[in-house]
Amino acid sequence: MTVTSQIVNLQEEYLALYNQNEAHLLNGAPDRMNELRQEAIGHFERLGIPSNKVEEYRYTNLQPFFKGTLSIGFSNEQLGVKLGDIFQCDVPELESYPVFLVNGWYSFQNVKDFGLPEGVIMGSIAEIGKKHPELLEKYYGTAANMDRDGLIAMNTAFAQDGLFLYVPKGVVVDKAIQIVNIMTGDVDRLAFQRNLVIMEENSQARIMVCEHTLSPNKYVINSVTEVIACENAVCDIYNVQNQHNLTTQVASTFIRQKAYSNVVTNNLTLHAGVARNNVVVTMEEEHCESHIYGLYLTDKNQHVDNFSFVDHAKPDCLSTELFKGVLDDRATGAFAGRVLVRKDAQRTNAYQTNKNLLLTEDAKINSKPQLEIYADDVKCSHGATVGQLDDAAMFYLRSRGVSEAEARILLMYAFAYEVIEKIRVEPLREQIRGLVEKRFRGELDKCDSCVVCGQLGNSLTCL
Amino acid sequence: MLVIKDLHAKIEDKEILRGINLTVKPGEIHAIMGPNGSGKSTLSAVLAGNDKFEVTEGEVSFNGKKLLELPPEDRSREGLFLSFQYPVEIPGVSMVNFMRTAVNEHRKYKGEEALSASDFLKKMRDKKKLVEIDSKLTNRSVNEGFSGGEKKKNEIFQMAMLEPTLSILDETDSGLDIDALRIVANGVNKLKTENNATILITHYQRLLDYIVPDYVHVLYKGRIVKSAGKELALELEEKGYDWIKKEFED
Description:
The structure holds two protein chains of two kinds.
Chain A: E1 2-7, H1 11-26, H2 31-35, H3 37-47, E2 68-73, H4 83-86, E3 96-102, E4 105-106, E5 121-124, H5 125-131, H6 133-139, H7 150-158, E6 163-167, E7 176-183, E8 189-199, E9 204-213, E10 219-229, E11 234-242, E12 247-257, E13 262-271, E14 274-283, E15 289-298, E16 303-312, E17 318-327, E18 332-341, E19 348-358, E20 364-373, E21 378-387, H8 391-398, H9 404-420, H10 426-440
Helix pairs in contact in A: 3-7, 5-6, 8-9, 9-10
Chain B: E1 2-11, E2 14-24, E3 29-33, H1 40-48, E4 54-62, E5 65-66, H2 72-77, E6 80-83, E7 90-94, H3 95-109, H4 117-131, H5 135-138, E8 141-142, H6 148-162, E9 166-170, H7 178-191, E10 197-202, E11 215-220, E12 223-228, H8 231-239, H9 242-248
Parallel strand pairs in B: 3-10, 3-11, 6-9, 9-10
Antiparallel strand pairs in B: 1-2, 1-4, 4-5, 7-8, 11-12
Helix pairs in contact in B: 4-6, 6-7
């Protein structure tokens, strides 16, 4: 069932919405998810939707975007969307296990027998959570801290579904897992999605998330992903955001890392209205490695805010961060990277870089490194730059007969490529290269078939 | 081919070129020599269209066109090539992509079809052989991490790809070891025909042992103060620039 509410005063109405629909929320969700709701709504009541008065959201006031007339689905309705009509995941080089979620709900349509490696469990968190309550009991809600951020509390209170992935000890998932998130329907919509990824000892998986909007409505998405990387696990998560300008997306990824685990996250924001990406990594044991990357390409009035927090709680861990942005027109952006090296986390290596290219005088970026170091034997660095296209390189290219417009595209691409090169899945890297170049040429039409996941065109989505 | 008349140019408020006159005909090789700061590199930058310099007086005609009115890309498409003294490193732009874009923009300008991928690669292969450049270099980003010699070889490779009618080699010999110098000079000589012309800008006579000029000009304080045959280069090598300075001290 779908409930439509008018939201003016935020907390008050969201609380009422929760109270009115608590029965629906509890109905059908796994026990562990339900157990946390009361506490979560309490935190939400206290914290609310962050405005720019909240330090960590200083450059992104989300309150206006959570207001208005919004519909929320309280059950898995699928909205009559026939995925077979919309999607053809036929990019041949991109061999993957495709999974679809519509408006935050796991889609049971078109579910093929994946032939996943033995022991791997993948599917709807609502469904699997009931079959394997012990897994949720042990991990759900253990990474996403809900008492500091109102949006995490809100997600924990409202979320009913999302993707669940469990990779058992020693198993390597050969092909990439491709999660296609679709927002669609003819009403303005608010969605909560909650994903849980459990990587047992020595396991490996690569996850690609493609975010799409299929109809020209306003969408607000508050999604939370928890990742638990156990000892020696290797996990890559690539998030490709390609959404229309009416979309507000808050995507929070919380990662708990155990000894010798190696995790890569890469948020590639190619197109979005307002995007806020949170990446929170906690190094709970020694010798973890975490690489946090981001690329944001914005124009018009778009706004992208990347926030990262790496908690070096134990010694001998490595974190590298690289975020790069190209901002055109009146686009705005923010980057804040907090690195905490705790007292006993000796021999920590933590490197952070944020580089921005501003193409106009009106484009704007706020960059804020925030290092807190309490150990004395560490190597940490941070750097932030804001610049324009390099005149010398521009002249060099033009002196060879390359037009000014083409030279700009080559140089913008050159700026972005450093982040693209970090993608460890070769076919995806190729696809992203092409996609980014199209974006710079102004040819990335969301009506086009998406090269990453084969989304077919829909003229209505041209916004 | 190239006629420069009374060319004046300044950067900020400093006048660097103070009335250059020079005529270059097809098939000729001109060497422009001169002490540091005499305006040699400024002349090449102005001809290539670097907008850091402001032309205050004079005109330049190139194959009948008013060169100074063209943007840098059109000067290149009209057949002008500048080998940079300090080639720019552009990480992230591959040599292949760069050259394909440049070659095809030249072709488009002339109303020709773009080269097919295989024809382009064949052209790359042929020209690489001609200028003895290592394949590894052309598989990398433009000049990124290249040694000084590799960068200069890469300039000559680009020249071979674009087949200009007038090449200006700005201090192509500076910082080159003798082997790299030989390779670069060989490349230039192989590309020489009776229809194209070369301007060598250099500080030393050394390059002129390999590429023999028809004319040698001495640039001093923004003017060409002496022009003669190749023997002038040897004289300069022997006596240095002091006697010229003395002769033309303002």
